[in-house]
Design a protein that fits this description.
18% strand, Rossmann fold, binds uridine-diphosphate-N-acetylgalactosamine, 13 strands, two-stranded parallel sheet, 314 residues, alpha/beta, 10 helices, 2 domains
Length: 314
């Protein structure tokens, strides 16, 4: 992998962003973190080294973006309204952040000679297409403002490549988990919620019958996918799934977390969540073939490491 000398990470104080910042700084890269701290936390990047500059601000601020993209080789665009439900409740606000903000990131990048922008997209763009696994050439069927916004970001990325020659790569994340994922909202990732319940001996709620499946990928593997996307020539202009190609059902997930944390708590079952997708699993042939990516952290090991982190902070 080519070393990156200078990078901007939008949303760098958030869950995925902060792991990316940590890895970039460890490889010798100078990193600017742009985060408005709406869901990120300063403490996520404290102590990660003196190569990191933190700028508190918003991706809708064009002047600020102009300033922070100057001299950057790569921009990792992670900042977004990440809750699907929040975009359902407030489509206009989330459109401003996720669409206008993304256009501003791309625009500042091309004006300041950034070589490549790596963008966080989502498996949400597939909607409930019943065909499995999800391959990048399926026609997207967005079911929420969030999915539309992420898909629009992908199209803008392609257009900025075609019109201005800006290199872009879009990564469709499946369900990402790991340390620093905040369990405090009802819309937090299920693993963060289940971990918090297991650590505090509380009863989890499973929405629906628990038979729904997800492809969970450990955050450090997602970081590696980002670094490959930034450096590999073959990535330019492409969209990639970032998952493991495997899945687990939600009821089995709770059993596994219960066993790893030595708790025997039966979950309660609530009504299915509106808009919940039943089955989700990625095909990772494209990212494997073009970028040589395959996940290294098995679900069980990732859960063990994540549990240790929740124990240490809880
Ligand atoms: C994930 C992403 C979302 C979007 C979407 C694409 C997260 C946090 N969200 O949403 O941003 O990309 O994928 O489709 O990664 N569940 C329970 N009990 C709980 C919490 C959740 O049963 O306390 C279930 C939930 O009903 C769902 C599954 O667990 O079936 C996963 O839920 P999630 O919120 O972690 O992620 P998801 O797939 O809805």
């Amino acid at each position: 992998m080519q070393p990156i000398s200078r990078a901007l990470v939008t949303g760098g104080a958030g869950f995925i962003g902060s792991h990316l910042v940590e890895q970039l700084a460890a490889s010798g890269c100078r990193v600017t973190v742009l985060d408005n701290l709406s869901t990120g936390h300063r403490h996520n990047i404290v102590g990660l080294g003196d190569r990191i500059e933190f700028v508190e601000g918003d991706i809708r601020d064009a002047d600020l973006l102009d300033h922070v993209t100057k001299g950057c080789e790569v921009v990792f665009h992670q900042a977004a309204v990440v809750s699907v439900s929040q975009t359902v409740q407030d489509p206009a606000f989330s459109c401003e952040v996720n669409d206008l903000g993304t256009v501003r990131v791309l625009d500042a990048s091309r004006r300041n000679g950034v070589r490549r922008v790596v963008m966080a997209s989502s498996s949400a763009v597939y909607g409930d297409d019943p065909r499995l696994p999800k391959t990048e050439d399926m026609t997207p069927k967005p079911l929420s403002p969030y999915a539309v916004q992420k898909l629009a970001g992908e199209f803008y990325a392609a257009v900025f490549g075609g019109l201005y020659g800006l290199e872009t790569v879009c990564l469709r994340y499946f369900n990402v988990f790991g340390p620093r994922q905040d369990p405090s909202s009802p819309y937090s990732g299920v693993i963060s919620i289940f971990m918090a319940k297991a650590v505090s001996g509380q009863v989890p709620t499973i929405y629906g019958d628990g038979g729904q499946s997800r492809d969970f990928i450990y955050v450090k593997d997602v970081v590696r996918a980002n670094l490959l996307a930034a450096s590999e020539a073959a990535a330019n202009g492409r969209v990639f799934n970032v998952g493991t190609g495997s899945f687990i059902r939600i009821c089995d997930l709770w059993e596994m977390i219960g066993a790893l944390s030595n708790v025997k708590i039966s979950p309660v079952f609530g009504p299915p969540r509106a808009g919940d997708i039943r089955e989700s699993v990625s095909d990772i042939g494209r990212i494997g073939g073009l970028l040589g990516f395959s996940p290294r952290v098995a679900l069980r090991q990732g859960l063990i490491d994540t549990l240790a982190w929740y124990r240490s902070t809880g």
